Amino acid sequence: MHINWISISIFLFIACARQVFVDYGKIERLIELREYNEAIGRLAEISPDDTLLARLYILAGRYDEALSCALSPYQSGWIYQKLGMYKDAIRSYMDADDILYENAMYNCGICASEAGDTAGAIVYFKKAEDFADAKRMLALSYEAEKNYIEALSIWKELRGAEALYHRAEIYNLVEESGESLYQELLKNYSESSYALMALDKVSVPQEVIANVLYKNKKYSKSLKYVSRKDHRMRALCFEGMGRYTDAADEYRSTKDCLNTGKCLEKAGFPDRALEEYRSSGSDEGYFRAGVLYEKMGRKKDAIDAYSKTGSSFKKTANLRNGLLCLDEGKIDLSKKCFERTFPVPGNYWLAKITGLSPYRFYVLSESPLSYYAYLLDGKLKISKSNPEEWIASFCDTVYSISHKDSIRLLKGKLLLGYGITEEAKQELSLIKEDNSLFRYRLALLAYNGGLDVLALYWAKKIINKGCPPFPYKILTIAYPLSFLPTVMEYAEMDPFLFMALVREESHFYPIAVSPSNAIGLTQVIPSTGKGIARELGIKQFDPESLKDPNTSIRFGIHYFNYCLKRFNGVAEYALAAYNGGPTRAGKWKKDCLEDEWVERIPRTETRLYVKKVMGSYYVYQQLYGDALELGNQ
Predict the structure, then answer these.
(1) Under 8 Å between Cβ of 522 and 506
(2) Rounded to two decimals, what is the model's pTM?
(3) What does each C-alpha distance from 603 to 282, 291, 311, 579, 599 come to in angstroms?
(4) Is the peptide bond before 469 cis (omega within 30 degrees of 0)?
(5) Is the dihedral of CA 467, 473, 474, 478 positive or negative?
(6) What is the per-residue pLDDT across 1-44, written as a single tens digit (0 to 9) for each?
């Protein structure tokens, strides 16, 4: 009967964004939906002097307006810093709460540096002691003031490429040789940008230059320094440049059949690639041959290649082999393959083939929140139980946190109360205590403070340790409704499908930036964002705008809608296109059922991504589906 209870609760969440109201309870629900601008509008009507208003302005990024509110000194300093009013920021930080003293001094140092006052920055960074990277900033400030002795003493304490480079630079400035440090940097940190800079400072063999350039993805430049006899290095450079035929020739000279095959396949020579894969005699070679045979429609050859795959790829090969045998009508052989693959997908396919309930039961009990539970149309078991009582059933509830963790917790609470989630995340992420009950309380704190990225992460880890039925509250933390009204405003698809996408892309962290520079809630790459902006009629596009939730959701939905339309509304294909690119997904497309197609996606990252999003979509539907229908009505 829990669904009716959930529906009523979530109906209030959705309805509150559409109706006029005057009570704090509905404002709190808007805050829980991360609809801060709407909450500000409602609260300003009721109580324009409310201290909560300042926090909401900060969370919404409306810093100018926040200055009109009653603020703590730390809030004032943080806002002035965001607005580039550095002198005012420093004055405010000086009166900050004692517990945030180091944070305030560090920020004062940053402000002084931005204002060009490096001497002042030194004073503040010294007071920040070990906070964040205060030592590094102190060393840089000493260097800027030409106090090389003090800078050198700090760089000697620090580790890494940057410290080595600065030590070498200082030695050179004070007429001592930094050559040995440059050499150490080139040897141990060849992939760093500092190694690139060090190349201009010291004479080294050509192979060292080639290695540093290669590690920094300067492939064509690296090739100029590679000996013609170094076939492997030449192959790596050619591969990085996308010259796969040349790379294959070089790999062949080293008798590396596997990599020769990979490059020939990329160059568009499948038959020659197959020869090399099979000649390699390796597990990966046979597996890749099987995948390539599948692409070519040679199912029997694929089955033969998969059957020869050894231990390291055996389970994946058995899964693909089982699907091929199923295609060929060899039911008994397919069952044997599925019995020897990964337990959850194997049992799903056995359940589908045989219809026997034990296989279905295994999947739903071992992986109740997964893509495979979605495929089996399982019913998620949800309880009204207290999460702490549920956690106590599988976890020791006695814990003791260290003094350092206590300080970080107090700082995190205070910063969340101020609406400064970025710094709260830094503090709370450093807490080491891993007790599940404590982590749940942290997750609840982060969730209530608007920091979904940590709340979701911690709740997910706890859920993975427990068994169903899962408490409703902990599921709502792991699968939040953050930004749902905004999603509903723009979405042409099921909003929960897009919520699942956002969950897997960014964990609802608006300012997330990936290593590949994908930005925001929906992880749009700036080049893609520029094209989307043009299609939406936005003349001036700034990649930083992708950190705004409204912009990110609007852009992400526009792109996902395009993917859905291109693939006739099939969610699995559209998700593969969103992650791996529409062109690539189009090449993967096959005439088969979606579950079979997903298992056969050749790119591991995309295959796992589709399964994760569809699994999350299943949970969102189970948790909130009835409520969305009520809200729409």
Answers:
(1) yes
(2) 0.90
(3) 20, 11, 20, 10, 10
(4) yes
(5) positive
(6) 343 444 534 444 444 444 444 467 889 999 999 999 999 999 98
